[in-house]
Specification:
64 strands; single chain; 6-stranded mixed β-sheet; mainly beta; 8-stranded antiparallel β-sheet
Length: 704
């Protein structure tokens, strides 16, 4: 029989049917193309065993003059500086109380009647002074309750925290871990963090050491009080765990009758943000022409937006901004134990913005630029289209004066600035409907801004990325590139991506660059997910597309770090492109990767094709498995809409590497059909592969 070489066009095409895409690839996961041929992507390992709190959507690396590598990590709950794998919490403090403004109230009682091991209502002798919701302990059993109704704790969940649900007799002690904290006009939100100091013991179990530590507020009762759950004494660093705060509860007794004394001080960190987008719907939600006529639309509800940080270096120091919030400054000389402070609070600060959507430091001319900020004349009143810049080489001076280069610009189109991206020559500024180029001119104007396009969309503040002087970004329903002019990038997976994306969580789309492979990747939440679980990649050298599944919320290209680093949905950072395994588990687990071709036939499919042999062509180079192998499969069917009949899964295993890599010479099959497809996959640890041009033994076999 004649041998036919299986050669396919690089990239994936999902804009046509499988049958009409003859000679191309149709489906894949965790595979890329190199020199036109598919290969398994690299694996990942944990950057450290330490986790961070919240969902990370911002990473920024830099190196100090002494050679120390730092990594800024912004989550919806915290801002950290990662040094050597350790997370140092530099989240700014928004308010610190005066001594005695904060008081505590602990609760304990007894059962008014016995309960069995399954009831969900716990009767107290008296509910007076008990928290509305919280955690209790009866005997050795830990129980949560949803609501206090009169003298009854309702909505109970039994046997928490590894304890065993049990029966309890009347008059048994009911100890409560939940502490009512009173602080008038505290300004806190649920999930905010506060650190107490100066507290005295409440009398028994709730000691001074228990109180004088960092807590996360889990319930806001009103403007003057909130709840925390007393926990075992721990260092502040222990808050950075996989589960957030430790579940080692401390339960008050009837002897914990104090209020903490008159020296208690509460230091409140800035309000936490959301890790998801809360949307509204209806007419006017979203930009004009977004989506097809009659399709649903969504818009983030004011004050309920996704927490996104922007950050940049000014020398060794760090400037950070929480989107639609304040601008902060971290002084490297103060060490990683110090927190960032408001830029406007620094000595000598003059007219600095107090609210902005984004900040960057212009590398070329050393101006700090704030986008969507407040003006000199109306501090605190945000103008979503206003751009302000500091005096050159001066982060403190923002007042526009003849003798300095500080000033402002305002964009005239759109309703708000979405993001700004710095290239080698300019800063590109995106609004919700337009694109503008901001360039340094020098005195007396400092900066000028030109309109580039009035007809673009952008998916999110994180969906644009610079590659030297080019910028790539994902729009609402298109992909774009700018390299002197705006162009829509032809995309062979456009329909596949935009029909499989959760539009209500579009703000989570984040772009990442992998220069080693000439790839720009967008991570996005699929239609059935509320968090990033999928990706689409554009190879800008080969001008091809491919896709897969991977949960990453932020990606940073190699630079200060030898390898790319990414934030995962599991609250860990990962070094990417290391080995071929999933390092989120210990030991590492296998990464399943595959690619499958579109259908092919002989002629126009009039005749059946008979196949009896497959001759592999691939390499297992750099695999660490003792006997790496991949599975090849041929699939046939008689009609484009019919069922596939597959060959046996045939393992192609490496047998020798000296003098030339050797593997399974041939695989015998016996298949007959009008069209056929080819698939290769691997699901073992330590296996990397790259496909060449396999050959199949095939001949026409008649029409019947």
């Amino acid at each position: 029989m004649p041998l036919t070489k299986l050669q396919f066009r690089p990239g994936i095409n999902r804009e046509t049917t499988s049958y009409s895409n003859e000679g191309g690839w149709f489906d894949m996961d965790k595979v890329r193309f190199r020199f036109g041929f598919p290969e398994k992507i690299g694996g990942w390992i944990k950057e450290s065993t330490n986790a961070f709190l919240g969902t990370c959507r911002a990473l920024h690396p830099w190196q100090a003059l002494n050679g120390t590598n730092y990594l800024g990590v912004g989550t919806n709950l915290k801002y950290y500086i990662n040094e050597g794998g350790a997370y140092n919490d530099i989240t700014p403090i928004r308010a610190t109380t005066s001594a005695g403004d904060v008081t505590f109230n602990a609760s304990a009682n007894t059962l008014s009647s016995g309960v069995d091991a399954v009831v969900t209502t716990i009767p107290l002798t008296s509910g007076s002074g008990f928290p509305d919701t919280g955690i209790i302990q009866i005997g050795s059993e830990t129980i949560s309750y949803a609501l206090l109704v009169g003298n009854n704790l309702t909505g109970c969940v039994r046997g928490l925290n590894g304890s065993t649900a049990a029966s309890h007799s009347s008059s048994a002690a009911v100890k409560c871990s939940t502490i009512i904290v009173t602080d008038n006009d505290h300004g806190a939100l649920e999930n905010d963090f506060v650190t107490f100091s100066g507290a005295a013991t409440l009398g028994d179990a709730v000691t001074a050491n228990v109180l004088n530590q960092e807590y996360q507020i889990f319930y806001i009762k009103n403007n003057n009080s909130y709840y925390i759950n007393a926990r075992a004494v721990a260092s502040i660093e222990s808050i950075t765990t996989t589960d957030g705060l430790s579940n080692s509860y401390v339960f008050a007794t009837t002897s914990d009758s104090g209020n903490g004394g008159s020296s208690v001080v509460g230091a409140y960190q800035i309000n936490t943000g959301l890790d998801t987008t809360i949307t509204g719907t209806g007419w006017g939600a979203g930009t004009w022409s977004r989506g097809t006529w009659g399709s649903g639309a969504s818009l983030a509800v004011s004050g309920q937006t996704l927490r996104i940080w922007s950050h940049d270096n000014f020398g060794e120091d760090l400037i950070i901004n929480v989107r639609d919030g304040d601008i902060f400054y971290w002084d490297k000389s103060s060490g990683t134990s110090s927190r960032a402070v408001e830029l406007s609070s620094l000595a000598g600060s003059n007219k600095a913005p107090t609210v902005a959507k984004q900040v960057i430091v212009s590398d070329r001319d050393r101006h700090v630029i704030a986008f969507g900020c407040d003006s000199e004349l109306e501090p605190g009143v945000q103008d979503p289209l206003l751009i302000r810049f500091s005096d050159q080489e001066n982060i403190l001076e923002w007042q526009s004066l003849i003798e300095n280069t500080a000033g402002d610009l305002r964009i005239g189109s759109g309703s708000k600035i979405i993001t700004a991206v710095e290239t080698r020559q300019q800063v590109l500024v995106f609004t919700d409907v337009s694109l503008h180029a901001m360039q340094f001119l020098g005195p007396p104007f400092t900066f000028g801004i030109n309109s580039i396009s009035e007809n673009i969309t952008i998916a999110s503040p994180l969906s644009a990325i610079a590659v030297e002087d080019n910028v790539f970004w994902m729009g609402a329903e298109e992909f774009y590139a700018y390299g002197g002019a705006v162009q829509r990038i032809p995309c062979s997976v456009r329909d596949y991506v935009f029909t499989n994306i959760n539009n209500s969580q579009l703000e989570k789309v984040t772009a990442g660059l992998n220069t080693a492979f000439s790839e720009v990747t967008w991570f996005y939440p699929s239609a059935t997910s509320s968090e990033n679980d999928s990706y689409v990649t554009y190879n800008y050298d080969q001008k091809i597309w491919y896709y897969g599944t991977l949960g990453r919320t932020c990606w940073l290209d190699r630079g200060v770090n030898v390898d790319p680093i990414a934030a995962s949905t599991d609250h860990y950072l990962y070094f990417q492109e290391i080995g071929f395994d999933d390092g989120s588990t210990s030991p590492a687990s296998a990464i399943t990767s595959y690619i499958e071709s579109s259908q092919m036939d002989l002629g126009d499919g009039e005749q059946f094709a008979f196949m009896r042999r497959l001759i592999p062509d691939l390499t297992f180079r750099n695999s660490t498995a003792s006997t790496p192998q991949a599975t090849m499969t041929l699939k046939v069917r008689n009609f484009p809409g019919g069922n596939y009949l597959s060959s046996d899964e045939s393992s192609v295993a490496k047998t020798a590497s000296i003098p030339v890599e050797q593997f399974t010479e041939q695989v015998f099959v016996r298949l007959r059909g009008r069209s056929f497809a080819f698939r290769i996959e691997s699901e073992d640890t330590g296996v990397g592969w790259r496909l060449g041009s396999p050959r199949v033994d095939i001949r026409p076999d008649g029409r019947r």
